[in-house]
């Protein structure tokens, strides 16, 4: 099929888009909804064996898409782990720059049939892994696009560099070397996308970073979004300080934040607050390190909360003590949508157009973080002001309708290399 002007977008995604999913799934859903409002896209889900084993019934996507096609992936030689450390490192060096995943044998023919041919119009690669896969499909199977947009979401090489700096001392030498190779590979792939294609990121901070690397790159910002929810009623002040931390509890920055919260921040909060303290850690797939933090009644790790709104309703303060990672924190947008005051770190609020003392409180040192939590819990007027103004900023900038309109505008016209930061 020859590409035609106005043809439907092809969305290549490495996750199943879900309105109720984790952060990366929510962002994929936001893109899908924006495309569907223009014209139902053709969705290609490039899924690993582990993802295929857990994939939901995809019928819910049919109403938004003209095509829903699953492209099964298998690990390439680079993606296979070896037990022998020396052999693993030798393999990583020899296969540097090769794709980590490749289509399962015979799967590309079915993909071409589903798409109607190899020559496509507009193609949207969600995340860098899908851009890596697209390069393989283009090089080995002749797929081509008239327009290619790559959503970095965050800058993965930066997020990995931060993880190495924060936790690298706990890793073995081989792990650290493999991480450095991965960072170099990701940065190389990012540069390839910046030089040849249109790139999206979720914050102006990341846009500026990429423009420093490639001043002529076509880069634009599509913020992370969250649905506009009814604001919860204010909490009545009490003797107990109720804290909430929420996130995917198998994600390294959240694992670190939960551990830091319990072992370092909680003792400081006890010094700052005269009464009892209760902390709920809520999220999916908690790893053993997070499960071990469960010590009721003071600390509860709750992996299967059917209605997270109930957890927010019980919280005086939503805490986001993130110390590394990339992109922007959807958990902050969720808290603001529900009208709950937030205390976070400088890195936690990075990339969000929110201000300390206006929309939320920002503190990095343990005692300062503790004092911020105690201030909100002990001052009903402050808590109400932060919740109200934070929600207004969320509605103006990050509500899903606002972001969907911005995405549609970007998809409707090619980005210029002179797009202002």
From TrEMBL:
<dbReference type="Pfam" id="PF13692">
    <property type="entry name" value="Glyco_trans_1_4"/>
</dbReference>
<protein>
    <submittedName>
        <fullName>Glycosyltransferase</fullName>
    </submittedName>
</protein>
């Amino acid at each position: 099929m020859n590409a035609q002007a106005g043809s439907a977008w092809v969305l290549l995604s490495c996750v199943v888009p879900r309105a109720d999913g984790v952060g990366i799934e929510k962002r994929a859903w936001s893109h899908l909804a924006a495309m569907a409002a223009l014209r139902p896209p053709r969705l290609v889900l490039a899924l690993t064996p582990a993802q295929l084993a857990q994939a939901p019934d995809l019928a819910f996507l049919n109403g938004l898409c003209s095509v829903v096609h699953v492209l099964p992936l298998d690990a390439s030689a680079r993606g296979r782990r070896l037990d022998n450390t020396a052999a693993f490192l030798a393999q990583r060096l020899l296969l540097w720059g090769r794709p980590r995943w490749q289509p399962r044998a015979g799967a590309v023919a079915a993909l071409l049939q589903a798409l109607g041919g190899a020559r496509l119009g507009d193609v949207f690669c969600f995340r860098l892994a899908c851009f890596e896969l697209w390069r393989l499909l283009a090089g080995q199977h002749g797929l081509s696009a008239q327009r290619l947009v790559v959503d970095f979401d965050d800058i993965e090489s930066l997020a990995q560099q931060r993880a190495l700096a924060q936790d690298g001392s706990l890793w073995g030498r081989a792990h650290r070397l493999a991480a450095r190779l991965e960072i170099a590979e990701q940065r190389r792939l990012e540069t390839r996308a910046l030089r040849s294609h249109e790139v999206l990121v979720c914050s102006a901070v990341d846009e500026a970073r990429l423009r420093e690397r490639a001043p002529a790159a076509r880069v634009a910002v599509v913020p992370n979004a969250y649905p506009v929810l009814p604001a919860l009623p204010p909490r009545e002040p009490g003797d107990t300080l109720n804290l909430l931390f929420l996130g995917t509890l198998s994600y390294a920055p959240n694992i670190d934040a939960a551990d830091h919260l319990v072992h370092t921040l909680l003792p400081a909060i006890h010094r700052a607050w005269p009464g009892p303290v209760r902390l709920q850690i809520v999220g999916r797939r908690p790893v053993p390190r997070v499960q071990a933090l469960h010590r009721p009644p003071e600390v509860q790790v709750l992996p299967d909360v059917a209605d997270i709104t109930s957890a927010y309703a019980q919280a005086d303060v939503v805490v986001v003590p993130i110390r590394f990672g990339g992109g922007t924190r959807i958990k902050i947008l969720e808290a603001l949508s529900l009208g709950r005051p937030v205390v976070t770190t400088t890195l936690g609020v990075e990339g969000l157009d929110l201000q300390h003392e206006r929309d939320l409180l920002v503190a990095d040192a343990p005692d300062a973080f503790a004092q911020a939590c105690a201030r909100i819990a002990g001052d009903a007027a402050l808590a109400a002001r932060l919740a109200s103004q934070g929600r207004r900023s969320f509605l103006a900038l990050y509500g899903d309708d606002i972001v969907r309109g911005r995405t549609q505008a970007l998809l409707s016209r090619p980005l210029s290399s002179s797009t202002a930061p």
